[in-house]
Amino acid sequence: MKKIDLNTAVQTLAMIGVMGSLIFVGLQMKQSQEIALAAQNTTRVGFYLAAIDSLAEQRMSYQTMLKQNFGLEPATEDYRWFKENQSHALWFIAENDYLQHSLGLMDQDVWKAKLTVFRLAYNSCATREIYQLRRPMFDQRFVELIESIPDECAKTNDESLSAN
After folding, report:
1. Residues 133-155, buried b or exposed e (16+ Cβ, 10 A)?
2. Whole-prediction pTM value?
3. Is 59 left (phi over 0), alpha (psi -120 to 50) or beta?
4. Residues 125-136 pLDDT 10s
5. Residue 160 and residue 164: Cα distance in Å, rounded?
């Protein structure tokens, strides 16, 4: 039987120790990212709850605001200011969500849902002016993403122009 060299045994144990440490650090990083993802989601939920609360203070309904926003009910003047403010808030959140995704701090399923929200917001023709006002302040990559969305407002405007 061959005798194991002490130097080789020490190097093997050191290598096993380094590999174990790297695995531990990797697991810690994964856990930290999961905590960051949960914190980001909690923050987003807080934004939306604050919006709902601000309506409740005025004895207004978030459900009614959504229906008016999507054209399911006639729009009233009471909700116009709220819709405008919500549109501004949504674009702040959307740009932040884009940044979070770019940094790898957003789950892919959440990102896919956000892309749906971006499409709905961009094609909310009644508040398109708000996007246009905010556009120069956005990250250019975010603008490119948003403007890669098929523009249903332009199609609606083209149809109404050709009908006249």
Report:
1. ebeeebeeebbebbeeeebeeee
2. 0.65
3. left
4. 888 999 999 999
5. 7
